[in-house]
Amino acid sequence: MAVRRAAAADSDTVLSLVNELLMELGGQPIPRTRAQAAFGRLVADDQEGFILVYEKDNAIVGVCTVSLVQAIRSSGPYAIIQEMYVVPVLRDRGIGAALVAEAVSQAALLGCSTVELGTPMNGERQERFYERLDFQRVGSRQRKSL
After folding, report:
1. How far apart are CA 51 and CA 56, in angstroms?
2. What percent of the chain has pLDDT over 90?
């Protein structure tokens, strides 16, 4: 069992897991052609962010995608955990905590002073998970689709 950076060869599995996350949250899967470009940027360019995967028995069973953002308020880059997913049958076994811990560590190495994330509506389970990992609530997000 290990956390590692995603490689180009992990594309299909990572995109499948992200789509499972979206469907679990009541959303629609993203067409692979659209998602592939973002995957490629996150795997290839540390300035864009990174993708972590958790492998168990030679299978990817968890994923955490992280984007880097520049902001004046943070005096430089900060990280946003965008997608975080562990296959349901393996939840509550430390996989998610290991992915988040590595995401925080990698973000710090890239010069980030903060890691942010959002939780879904009615995401009490997710909020408790992140609070156990020392994340603090700072408000809610709003969105406008373009």
Report:
1. 17
2. 78
